[in-house]
């Protein structure tokens, strides 16, 4: 076990809690929107699901992404190792490819019915704040990690790049899910290099055409390149409704309700085809 592998959990946890606390304080001091539910109704489940996800990952996978990268390096597996690519090239290339993979995966999880069934839990949050960034079903997390392990091994991504990518992705996801706003000019400039809260909030709109836009979590370039970018919500950030039209049940804020969501009723095959039967009983 290398020093990086040994210290990775400490580094990731420290960065995670630092960004989470900073965003919570920012939201409390200057919220972008009024919340429809008290934090005490939503936060226990949204924070609890990240604990469940972490435990499930450790039980399912003998090694996670950094461990897979180190194993690939030791065995000489992957494209970058086969090409003997220099670190200065492999590092930025890995970050770009991994980010593109996350964007692509996100689009696919919206378009394929069985995958949307898992992913929709992220969109059934009736409010949008930093804890929404943590709200993913364990089965989606397992599939995401499996995709990441395969990609890291096939590419031969350096272990440092994997850890750096995961720290950046976690931090930017919490940032752009924040119930905060930036000055308009700063937001317009920043969203050329980073997904901002106002940019990603559009993705959580109740309007299907807005839900199917702005898929990026970190870099905004893929949305612009592939035509999925939407500048602003039709109803404005203060007036827009968060969530899914066919899933408005406030009882779905409890942890067990989140875990059961994919299995309760037939899921719509598309975010643009809401069906009232998807409401929780």
Automatic annotation (TrEMBL):
InterPro entries: Fatty_acid_hydroxylase, Sterol_desaturase/TMEM195. The keyword Oxidoreductase applies. Its main location: membrane. It is found in: Endomembrane system. It is a multi-pass membrane protein. Residues 94-228 form the Fatty acid hydroxylase domain. Pfam families: FA_hydroxylase (PF04116). It comes from the Bacteria. The chain crosses the membrane at residues 6-26, 47-67, 87-109, 145-165. Keywords: Lipid metabolism, Membrane, Oxidoreductase, Transmembrane, Transmembrane helix. This is Sterol desaturase family protein. It comes from Candidatus Competibacter phosphatis.
